[in-house]
Amino acid sequence: MQLEVSHDSFPVTRRPLTISSISGSSVEIIFEAVGRGTGLLAGTDTGSSLRLLGPLGCGYRLNPGKWLLIGGGLGAAGFHGLAASIECGLLLLGASSQDKLLTIPGIETLTVTEDGSSGRKGLVTDLLETVRWGSFSSIALCGPVPMMKAVIELMPPQARTITQVSAEARMGCGWGACEGCSVPKAGGGFLKCCSDGPVFPADTIDWKLWEGIH
Amino acid sequence: MDKSGKWTLWNREFNSPILLASGTAGFGLELMEQDFLEGAAAVISKATTLKPREGNPPPRIVETRFGLLNSIGLANPGVEEVLKTLLPQAAILPCPLIINVAGETAEDFPAVIERLEESSVPFGYEVNVSCPNVAAGGIAFGASPEIVERIASLVKSVSSKPFSVKLTPNEGSIVESAKAAQAGGADAVTVCNTFLGMKMDWRTGKAPLKRNVGGYSSPALLPLTVARVFKTSEAVDIPVLASGGVNRAEDILELLAAGAEMVQVGTWLMRRPDAARELRESMIGLLESVSS
């Protein structure tokens, strides 16, 4: 979905955000205030009204069978809702420090932090060596592009074919018109992050080109 | 506008002066599905070229403090695919569709329009002379009144439908180009297009846009558009379609007062896809408050 973060004209575009979970008529979002837009959003008073456009785009294909979720930082926010809709076997989470580490109760979770403030000290890729890849029928991957690329490269090729990644891009309209949010497509051309995605099968992306953008 | 609250373009009457600007509404299909075309007189399609274009490498858009820079690179599936897939779907739009046409050479424009003439769907065309003329080393076609006139007359010779020439604010004189478009047979001019802009990250010494420069659009452009619309409409007899900086009903009325026949809304559609309905309602409210 996208949220208008200001009541005046600037920033012009809305901020694209992952719906973390839905309950009744409420949606929960988890975000980090990293720039002007999310900074304004973080400063929004309780009880304020914001315009929301959504739901937009295509989410995870909720395949049956056991899932492995791999998340980096707050990029894993969407796993809350996902975990409630699938059979989640294992969650691997990495973050820079404990305060950026999400928790999803009731799911077997292995964590790693860069500063060692929670779980092992290291990167999420350090957790991959223990994974029994053959025991999962779907994999969800979400986080910064370099982290996702590193995970994809360490996976056995078979695992790559069952992996769905949640992508991020600078977005304009949010519904496929402006072609601003291109993600390089494997074999040439571009995917629209907002309407073809933001969740894509991992093997539809040209990872080398995509990493070059970030 | 006449006294009954009607606006006219190319002998057709509309209950709104709002056109959805090229590149911000696709071919209107997604907006139609959500009932977001209410309040729009017509949709102007994204640019259509002779051959398919992948567009520029990302990042293609970047927000600046007071507006948006884009460098999409005229990504589009090409005229054959537009004819085969998009125009048949667009036949059921609740408002007319104007097809925006871009080219790499002057001859591309009539070539694309000759193909589009096969379809009864387009209400008219918008000829984008802001794109680079490959034969002239990448200077925009619109920089030269002679080339603008030539393109307009080439288009006139193949088109059974009316067309507007979308002028560039970046090179040459808009007024001279507008006169040239009229002399070549254009049925309107669009004034104007995005302004060449660039953002620089001083920490890295790099521009966030892959192509460095892009088109700048913003509500802050409104006075620049008002001035150009005012000067152009004094210089030509054909309708002036204003484009640039509109995000309030007052902006539309201001541009109409400055001489525009119709007013385009572009970047603001990215913020509010249903902007046409909202703007039209509020504009009618303003007009009524003045007349009562």
User: What's the total count of β strands of chain B?
Assistant: 14
Round the Cα radius of gyration of chain A to an integer and report it.
Answer: 17 Å
Specify the number of helices of chain A: 5
Unreliable stretches of chain A (pLDDT < 50, length at least 5) are: none
Distance between the termini of chain A: 22 Å
Helix content of chain B: 25-40%
Strand content of chain B: 15-25%
Could you describe the largest sheet of chain B, including whether it forms a barrel? Answer: 8 strands, parallel, barrel
Mean pLDDT of chain B: 95
Form type of chain A: globular
Poorly predicted runs of chain B are none
Specify the structural class of chain A. Answer: alpha/beta
What topology, given as strand order, has the largest sheet of chain B? 3-4-7-8-9-10-13-14
Largest sheet of chain A: 7 strands, mixed
Tally of extended strands of chain A?
A: 14
Give a topology summary.
The complex is a heterodimer of chains A (214) and B (292).
Chain A: E1 2-3, E2 15-16, E3 21-23, E4 26-28, H1 36-42, E5 52-53, E6 66-72, H2 79-85, E7 87-95, E8 109-113, E9 120-121, E10 138-142, H3 145-154, H4 157-160, E11 163-166, E12 182-184, E13 190-192, E14 199-201, H5 207-213
Chain B: E1 7-9, E2 12-14, E3 18-20, H1 29-33, E4 42-44, E5 61-64, E6 67-70, H2 79-90, E7 97-101, H3 108-116, E8 122-128, H4 145-158, E9 163-166, H5 174-183, E10 188-191, E11 195-198, E12 213-217, H6 222-235, E13 240-243, H7 249-257, E14 262-265, H8 267-271, H9 275-291
Parallel strand pairs in B: 3-4, 3-14, 4-7, 7-8, 8-9, 9-10, 10-13, 13-14
Antiparallel strand pairs in B: 1-2, 5-6, 6-12, 11-12
